[in-house]
Design goal:
The chain has five helices and four strands, in the order H-H-H-E-H-E-E-H-E.
Length: 151
């Protein structure tokens, strides 16, 4: 279980993961050694999984984001496994989520423009195995995006 100090460390770490251990310790009001040991402990426990760069895909020329809701043919015993294995191989698929309910899988797909999306959709998405139904939702705007936990 996390104590108040762990939560304080995580709040500051989420706000700025590029902080050095000394800077993080200073913001938390503790020594560098204590801070480093707490961070290492949370990493070992699987609470802190790593750090990643956040890239503005639009700045790199990717103007379209499409969410595809996929229903699979569940009469096939390995439909989920085979679909997911194949979907992981499509470079334009950024995220794959699975669900219980009418929709089985959601794919988040990036493309440079509509013609690029059409090519990816026809050549890579529609050829994925075991698709029974697919619905495309064109992304208009990201209203809120927050990966930080309310600690």
């Amino acid at each position: 279980m996390l104590d108040d100090l762990d939560r304080r460390i995580l709040r500051h770490f989420q706000a700025d993961p590029s902080l050095s251990a000394a800077e993080l310790a200073e913001r938390c009001g503790i020594s560098s050694g204590v801070c480093w040991r707490r961070v290492e402990k949370m990493q070992a426990a699987g609470i802190i999984l790593g750090q990643e760069a956040v890239i503005d895909w639009a700045a790199l020329g990717f103007a379209l984001e499409v969410s595809l809701r996929v229903t699979l043919d569940k009469t096939q015993p390995r439909a989920f496994d085979e679909f997911l294995e194949a979907a992981r191989q499509v470079p334009e698929v950024l995220e794959i989520q699975t669900f219980l309910g009418r929709v089985d899988v959601r794919l988040s797909v990036l493309a440079r423009e509509m013609s690029h999306y059409q090519k990816v959709y026809r050549d890579r998405i529609l050829t994925l195995p075991h698709i029974a139904d697919i619905e495309a939702l064109m992304h208009i705007a990201r209203v809120k995006r927050n990966e930080a936990l309310p600690l």
